[in-house]
Design goal:
This protein has 72 residues and is mainly alpha-helical. It has helices at 6-24, 37-44, 54-63, and strands spanning 29-32, 68-71. It has a domain at 28-72. It has a two-stranded parallel ribbon with strand order 1-2.
Length: 72
């Protein structure tokens, strides 16, 4: 998926900011839901850590932290 516009970036910023907020506040179990299935697919991809968008890589990094995170 190619992330190009400010709308695409704003969706990823919202996901990243939410994940950072819950991580910083010590939550150990979360469910991340998005109305945009293509974003969820991009985050779930096994090669997301190599995505050219740094926000996608950061979000994927959150999924590897020591917590229980479900992405829907």
């Amino acid at each position: 998926m190619k992330v190009t516009g400010s709308w695409d970036l704003s969706k990823y910023w919202a996901i990243y900011t939410g994940l950072k907020l819950v991580w910083d506040n010590g939550f150990e179990r979360i469910i991340l839901q998005s109305d945009f299935p293509e974003d969820v697919t991009t985050i779930h991809e096994s090669n997301a850590e190599y995505n050219p968008n740094s926000l996608v890589r950061a979000i994927k990094g959150f999924s590897r932290k020591c917590w229980d995170m479900e992405i829907q």
